[in-house]
Amino acid sequence: GAGVSQSPRYKVAKRGQDVALRCDPISGHVSLFWYQQALGQGPEFLTYFQNEAQLDKSGLPSDRFFAERPEGSVSTLKIQRTQQEDSAVYLCASSPREGGYEQYFGPGTRLTVT
Amino acid sequence: LAKTTQPISMDSYEGQEVNITCSHNNIATNDYITWYQQFPSQGPRFIIQGYKTKVTNEVASLFIPADRKSSTLSLPRVSLSDTAVYYCLVGDAGAGGFKTIFGAGTRLFVKA
After folding, report:
1. Is the CB of B7 inside 8 Å of chain A's CB atoms?
2. In a 3-state reduction of DSSP, which class is residue A84?
3. How far is CA A114 from CA A58, A86, A111, B18, in A?
């Protein structure tokens, strides 16, 4: 079956631009996670959704980062006024259970801010 | 959330069994232990999860001693394609959402 998909796979933005990254989770999955992964590091938690409710956004690094999942399926991570330090791979994962460590990851979106 | 400690890197040869140990001294009663594998340019992939004793699937085995302060991921007869980063995670998969901590992982390099 279809896994988690993310688009675009690669994004180059000039500093100060706004970007929107999309995640299509596995159909029917309750939980959705966003992570940021810098080169050579493990994924760092950004935010968690249970259906359409954003229950944990403690990992968002600043108020320039905003995530939504309005209908409990597709999610968008938006970064406003991008900075060079935002350059990273942004990973989305979904899980069939509430919370849940058995997460299914997408391929990620590599964001480069120039 | 329980902090985990893993070796930074390990080397092995094709056909050998590889054991990666993770320390989690502060594991809580409700915490599960989960391992992920990540190849370059891909998202992590769930390998195995356990609570106590031993869990085995088609990919790996997970050994958890009685005190649960550590766990060992065992990969039987590794091949070159097992070269990847392996992450140990510990946490309570409870309702209400939670923060997942990956850490730096263990880089396994399998040589021919």
Report:
1. no
2. helix
3. 27, 10, 10, 41
pLDDT in tens, A72-102: 999 999 999 999 999 999 999 999 988 767 8
Collect all residues of chain A within an 8 Å Cβ-Cβ radius of residue B101: 45
Render pLDDT for A5-62 as a digit per residue (tens, 0 to 9).
Answer: 999 999 999 999 999 999 999 999 999 999 999 998 999 999 999 999 999 999 999 9
| Residue A104 to residue B46, Cβ atoms within 8 A | yes
Closest C-alpha among B6, B8, B7, B4 to residue B25:
B4
C-alpha B93/C-alpha B91 separation (Å) is 6
pLDDT in tens, B57-102: 999 999 999 999 999 999 999 999 999 999 998 886 554 446 778 8
- Distance CA(A44)–CA(A61), nearest Å, equals 10
- B42 contact A CB<8A: yes
Q: What's the rounded Cα separation, in Å, for the pair B112 and B100?
A: 35
Closest Cα in chain B, distance from residue A40 (Å): 8
Contact across the interface for B92 and A99, Cβ inside 8 Å? yes
